[in-house]
Amino acid sequence: MALILVRGENNSKLLNAITDMERHGNLTLTTKPKVIDASFADSLVEGILNSKLKTKSNVAIAFFVKEDTTLSIMQVKKIHPPAHVVVVSDEYGAYSKLEYVLNKADNFQGYNSVKAVNDGMIDYKINKKERHIKNDKLNSYTK
Question: In Å, how far are 5, 14, 43, 87 from 74, measured between CA atoms?
Answer without folding.
Answer: 15, 19, 24, 10
